[in-house]
Fold this sequence. Notes:
Subcellular location: Membrane
Number of domains: 1
Membrane topology: Multi-pass membrane protein
Main location: membrane
CATH architecture: Up-down Bundle
Number of strands: 0
Organism: Peteryoungia aggregata LMG 23059
Largest sheet: none
Region (Disordered): 390-409
Order of helices and strands: HHHHHHHHHHHHHHHHH
Amino acid sequence: MLLTGITGLYIAQSVIGGITWTALPALMREADVPLDRIGLVSLIALPWVLKFLWAPMVERYRLPKTGGNRSGAIVLFGGLISIFGLILSGSLDPSGWMPLFAILTVVAFAASTVDIACDGFAVQSLASGHHGWANAAQVGGAYLGSALGGGLFLYLVGTSDWQIATWAMAAVLLLLGLPFLLVASRMPSEARREHVPSLLHALRRPLLRRGLFAAGTFVVAQKVSLGMIGPFLVDQGLDLKTIGLINGSGSLVIGSAAALVGGACVRAWGARPVLILALVLQACLLSLLAAASLTGAFSVPIMIMIAITSSSGVMAFGFVALYAQFMRLSDPRQAGVDFTLFQCCDAAVSIIGGVVAGHIAEAFGYGVFFSAAAALALAVVPLIARVSADDHSGHPSNDRGVTPGSGAR
Length: 409
């Protein structure tokens, strides 16, 4: 039941992300919004970049010095804001991007705050032997949520309209959040805690700083092309209904399967080989997309397969290893703060990469853009080989004086 509740929240957060970063760019492109404006969608992720600023306050509220765990209260309040935000978004025209951006930014703020509580709850409540399942919940839940938010949502827009599709996703969020609230209500009501969560405690740890560098390096190579794949398919003549089916099936089938394969490979080989292999595979696929754009030699079905393998398969495969490192490097006494720092690094790089990607694609075309993204993925391989965890079990020796999972109850 615990994993079910946690998985539900990860799926819900990715439904919001799928609507924002997968569906919205395609909708804007169909409305003839320029690519450089579409690149600004990445700015909606600002709360995910800045949430480290309020993560200590959230953790102190969630884990008071005396009293029960308040994760449920944070999830309830943040979830209601997210649901109301989607309902309000449904009343707007997606081509009028500024009001929509403002509302979705508020939703992102609520969802990112919920994520602080959810990540902290997961690291703290699960014994280290179950962290692999939590990583599968994170990555697998992300791709299932993306299938709903980026796939089913676009399909509903194409077959009905924006309002019905958006309100349907609001209902999905409500259903996904209920299991966690049931789990949180059963947590022990009394506890005493000596540690006070803080950013300073996190940033003093050398392993955490090394993990931040590894995260930024890996994410910039893997995610820089993500926001341009939807517009690329639109410009190849695909309609929203077809793209919705592609995103949905790719995330649900390829992404989920790749997450399971990635988890098995991390368990067998360790994190470093999986991260390197993911970068090499991404470079190959982006090179094929560049060739498709420059030469026009590939058929539409082949381009579709390349696109979904890149955005769903390889991404899921690599991020299982990356998130496994995040969890194992987080101090369970303030897991919400530590894990948040890793995710903020991820979001910051995604924002910068998304904005730059839009300008490069608009100025030079998809062929040059995808070629540059492929070269970048190969260029960071030596850096990832140096800074990623090299322990075969995926459990790097830590420097915080506690064992991963020692905060489990």
